[in-house]
Design a protein that fits this description.
Pathway: Cell wall biogenesis; peptidoglycan biosynthesis. Residues 258-380 form the L,D-TPase catalytic domain. The active site is at residues 338, 356. Keywords: Acyltransferase, Cell shape, Cell wall biogenesis/degradation, Peptidoglycan synthesis, Signal, Transferase. This is L,D-TPase catalytic domain-containing protein. This protein is mainly beta. It has 3 domains: 60-146, Immunoglobulin-like, CATH 2.60.40.3780; 153-254, Immunoglobulin-like (Sandwich); 257-407, Beta Barrel (L,D-transpeptidase catalytic domain-like), CATH 2.40.440.10. 8% of the residues lie in helices and 37% in strands. The chain has helices at 7-14, 185-189, 311-318, 361-370, 399-403; strands spanning 39-40, 46-47, 61-65, 70-73, 79-84, 86-95, 100-101, 103-105, 111-114, 123-132, 137-146, 153-158, 165-166, 172-177, 192-197, 203-206, 212-216, 226-232, 243-244, 247-254, 258-263, 268-273, 276-282, 293-298, 301-309, 321-329, 336-339, 357-359, 376-380, 384-385. The strands form 7 sheets. A 6-stranded mixed β-sheet has the order 23-22-21-29-24-30, with no helix packed on it. Strands 4-11-10-6-7 form a 5-stranded mixed β-sheet, with no helix packed on it. A hairpin with a 4-residue loop joins strand 10 (123-132) and strand 11. The longest helix has 10 residues, at 361-370. The radius of gyration is 27 Å and the shape is elongated. 38% of the residues are buried. The model is unreliable at 1-9, 12-47 and 419-431 (pLDDT under 50).
Length: 431
């Protein structure tokens, strides 16, 4: 392992644009049987049916936000809806030129979200129609205007390239510079939309610094899944006076299941494809003074040829510069899988690296040709545990641990049964 690449430099290589999540409108209805059976009255005589009590109908109430003629609103403004005794029939938003703005309702029907950021310094008119359970329609119309563009942005990035294919452990990763304060995370999280096809519901979880948020499901994505993401952050106001810099969208595919498992005890790597063992390679891990990280890590980046340069970090006496082939990044701190012809005699026998997973050149070349960004590697038995946030560590937690990082309430169907590690089937490395 060579800790020479700054996080900022690595981030620039990995940043990508991102993809709109669909928001559905749900409708609900209820009914009952109006026939009651005959009954036998006290004393044994048959009497007439007793009418069953029914709940009175919910009064039809309907309101929208923002308030009419509201000014200086952010371009992330949504059309809020509150309906009792009925449902939203339609929402139409137009700008001052009469051009319609596309959008969709949130799944919980609390608001209508524009499909793209609104324009700065622009007047808008929203027309919202709701219909009661009895068929009564009501229309509300509001106008509002947006504020000008702020120069005090929070930088953001989405680690997902549109149209690319990723491994089954690829989390959706959104990064923020500077990090998002804890009190602002719920508002930001509400503007992060993910859709998977076939559906595999998941949860967002924040690293403690607020610099990254990960989205994943309880288990690895199914091969063939399409993930569509929208980080709808442009103009969203934060408590420190900053605003989100831009909307990011992407749609990507999940490829075959490909996993690597490394055991420090045997100093071997097992390679599995679609749960079948296909290769076993000897490895050399980090020596005791610079151990490799135990845990479930993810291939973050791949470079067929690169240079490891540690002079800036270690200085002229301990630093070095080395050409490296078949490098696959696992952590921000500089742990990689890579070819190491100088340690072939040690591979399978002893650990001599600076924290990287060393492979023989032919083995490293073969593995490089098979892996995808997003493929998981589980390392166990080393002197150090993987540090949260040092790499994409979304899978180095049980599901019960992961959901604790959400800034919003976790849906009932995604809450773990218990808080123990046994409550999730997620594979987690042990030391």
């Amino acid at each position: 392992m060579l800790r020479f690449v700054t996080r900022q430099a690595a981030t620039r290589k990995l940043l990508a644009a991102t993809a709109v999540g669909a928001l559905g409108l749900s409708l609900a209805a209820c009914g009952g049987d109006d026939k009651a059976p005959a009954f036998v009255a006290a004393g044994g005589k048959q009497g007439a049916a007793t009418p069953q009590p029914t709940a009175p109908p919910v009064p039809f109430e309907f309101s929208v936000t923002p308030a009419d003629k509201k000014k200086d609103l952010p371009v992330s403004t949504e059309i809020g809806t509150n309906v009792k005794g009925g449902s939203i029939t339609s929402v139409k938003l137009v700008d001052k030129a009469g051009k319609a703005v596309g959008g969709a309702m949130r799944d919980d029907n609390t608001s209508w979200v524009p499909g793209a950021p609104l324009k700065y310094d622009t007047d808008y008119t929203a027309t919202v129609v709701a219909t009661s359970t009895g068929g009564q329609a009501e229309t509300k119309k509001i106008s509002f205007s947006t504020r000008g563009k702020s120069g005090n942005d929070v930088g953001s990035g989405l680690y997902l390239f549109n149209g690319k294919t990723y491994g089954v452990a690829m989390p959706v990763v959104v990064e923020f510079t500077p990090g998002i304060a804890e009190k602002d995370r719920a508002a930001v999280e509400k503007r992060l939309f993910v859709k998977t096809d076939p559906p595999q519901p998941g949860v967002w979880s924040w690293v403690s610094t607020g610099t990254q948020a990960y989205y994943r499901a309880p288990d690895y994505w199914r091969p063939g899944t399409t993930i569509t993401v929208r980080a709808a952050l442009e103009g969203i106001p934060l408590s420190n006076g900053r605003v989100g810099d831009q909307d990011r969208k992407a749609s990507a595919k999940i490829g075959d299941k490909f996993e690597m498992k490394v055991d420090n005890k045997t100093k071997k790597m097992q390679v599995l494809k679609n749960d079948k063992l296909v290769k076993t390679f000897p490895v050399s891990l980090g020596k005791p003074s610079t151990p490799s990280s135990s845990g479930t890590l993810i291939v973050m980046d791949k470079q067929e040829h690169t240079v490891f340069d540690t002079f800036a970090e270690l200085g002229p006496e301990e630093g070095y510069r080395t050409d490296i082939d078949f490098a696959q990044r696992l952590t921000w701190g500089g742990e990689f899988i890579h070819s190491a012809p100088w340690s072939v005699a040690d591979q399978g026998v002893r650990n001599v690296s600076h924290g990287c997973v060393n492979l023989a050149p032919d083995n490293a070349s073969w593995l490089f040709g098979q892996t995808k960004v997003g493929d998981p590697i589980t390392i166990k038995g080393t002197e150090r545990k993987a540090e949260p946030g040092n790499g994409w560590t979304a899978w180095n937690q049980t599901w019960a641990q992961f959901v604790k990082g959400s800034a919003l309430p976790v849906p009932a169907n995604l809450r773990p049964a218990t808080t123990s590690a046994a409550a999730t089937p997620t594979p987690t490395a042990t030391d």
